[in-house]
Amino acid sequence: MAGEQEFDCDLVIIGAGLTGLSLACWLLELSAQKQQPLPTVHLLEPREEYHNDRTWCFWDSEYHPFRHLISHRWSHWQVSRGERSVSQSSEQAPYAMLPAGRVYQHAVERIESCSRLSLRQGITVEEIRDSDDGVLISTAAGQWRARAVIDTRPPDATRVDQKLGFWQVFTGYEIHCPGHRYDTGMARLMDFQRCNEHICFVYLLPLDQDNLLVEWTEFDPGGEWPDCQARLEAWLDERGFADYTVKRSESGKLPMMPVSQSRQQGRIVRAGVGAGWMRAATGYHFATCQRNCSELAGQILAAAASGHWHFHSTEARKHWLDWMDRVFLRALRRHPETAPDWFLDLFSATTAEQMARFMNDQPRWGDAVAVAAALPAMPFLRAALP
After folding, report:
1. Residue 137 forms beta bridges with which residues?
2. Which of 15, 69, 161, 378 is most deeply packed, by most CB within 10 A?
3. DSSP letters along 91-132, please?
C-alpha cells in the first residue's frame, strides 16, 4: 500500500449538493454509532455560496440526519382535475417539506466542526484518473490525490434516455398572502391545468394561514422550454391573488428520464442523480438519497477500517420498479391528454400508506399490484411491448 504521505486525503466527494452533504452527515452519524474513526474526506463543490434555492419533499417515514429540520408536515394530500379530486390521509407517513437552506446550514456546520472533513467551495473537477494505488483529481485550483472517489455530479446527456420520459420544468414562489383561505392541513400535490399537448399542474403547499408555496410544473418531452413563470403568475391572477408578496422563488428542469446504469465497483463510484437515484417517473429523490447515502457511508467506514478502498454502487430501487417506471413514462408520452385521469385513478385505488411506500421507492408487491390494477390495461400493455 502507498504511504500515508502520498495522499492528500482518504476520500474525495465530488459535489456537495444534497448527495455530497448527506453522505458527509451519514459518515458522522455512523462513525459515532459504531465508535469508529472517520477517514479524511474532502468535498469539492463548484458553487461558492449556498442559498435557500429549493425544497425537498417526501413522505416522512424513515430516520435521516435532517429529519429534525423538517419545516412542515401534512397528514392529508390531494390530486385534482377540475371538479374531480381525490384525497388521501396518513398520520404514520405524512407528506413533509424540508427547505434546502436548513440542510445546507446544518451540514456545513457539522463538516466545519470535524477536523477529518473539509469542504472546498468554488472548485470544479476537470478530470479523474484512476491508478493501481489511488485516484488523481484535477481541477483549475490544483490536484488532489486520494485513495477513492465518490462522484455525485449529474449525468451527462449521453447517459440520459431523452427519448423516454420528460423534463420536469417548474417555477415556484413562496408567497405571503394574508388570509389566503386554503386549508393548511391539505397538501395539493397535483391540480391539473389545461395545456397544449403537455401535462401541467399546480403544486400548492399551504405553510400557514398567510403563506404558501405554489409552483407551476410541466412535463415537457423536450424542445422549447415552457415559460412556467408567466403561467404561474397568470394562474395566481386568475385565482384572485391580487395582493401577495414573493418571499422566495425556485425553478428547475429535472430529467424524468432513465439514467443508464452499470454495476460499478472499485475506487470510483457514482452517487446521486448521476447514479439513477432520482425516480424517473416522479422526480422524487430525497428519501432514496438518504437510504443510499447511509449504505455508502457504511462502505466507506468499512474501507477505512480494512484499508481496502473498494466500493460497489448501491441499488436505488428494485429493477422491477425501474421497469414499471419505463412503461409508465412511455404510456404518458403517448397519451398526455388522458394522463391526469390516470393519476387520479391511481390515488383513488391505493391507500395512503401504499402510495407513500411506492413514491418513496419501497413498495411491497401488493402495492405494485394495486398500482398496476388502477391503470387502464390496453395503453400500458402496449407501452410494455419492446
Report:
1. 128, 144
2. 15
3. SSS-EEEEEHHHHHHHHHHHHHT-TTEEEEES--EEEEEE-S
Give the residue among 11, 2, 4 at the shortest CA–CA distance from 299.
Answer: 11
- Count of alpha carbons within 13 Å of 372, Cβ hemisphere only? 16
Q: Which of 264, 359, 241, 360 lies closest to 312 in space, CA to CA?
A: 264
Cα(64)–Cα(138) distance, integer angstroms: 32
Q: Which residues pair with 312 in a beta bridge?
A: 265
Domain 4-55+97-156+259-312 has CATH 1.20.1540.10: no
Report whether 7 contacts 134 (CB < 8 A): yes
- Whether 359 contacts 282, CB under 8 Å: yes
Burial of 237 (0-12, 13-18, 19+ CB in 10 A): exposed
How far apart are the two ends of the chain, measured CA to CA in Å?
Answer: 49
Tens of pLDDT along the chain (386 residues) come to 344 448 999 999 999 999 999 999 999 999 999 999 999 999 999 999 999 999 999 999 999 999 999 999 999 999 999 999 999 999 999 999 999 999 999 999 999 999 999 999 999 999 999 988 899 999 999 999 999 999 999 988 777 887 888 999 999 999 999 999 999 999 999 999 988 778 999 999 999 999 999 999 999 987 678 899 999 999 999 999 988 999 999 999 988 988 876 667 899 999 999 999 999 999 999 999 999 999 999 999 999 999 999 999 899 999 999 999 999 999 999 999 999 999 999 999 999 999 999 999 999 999 999 999 999 999 999 999 87
3-state secondary structure of 221: coil
Would you list the domain boundaries of the chain? 4-55+97-156+259-312, 166-256, 319-384
Q: Are strands 95-99 and 117-121 parallel, antiparallel or unpaired?
A: unpaired
Tell me the pairing of strands 55-59 and 95-99: antiparallel
What amino acid occupies position 238?
A: E
pTM of the model: 0.94
Q: Which residues sit opposite 79 in a β-bridge?
A: 86, 190
**Where does 166-256 sit in CATH, by number?**
3.30.70
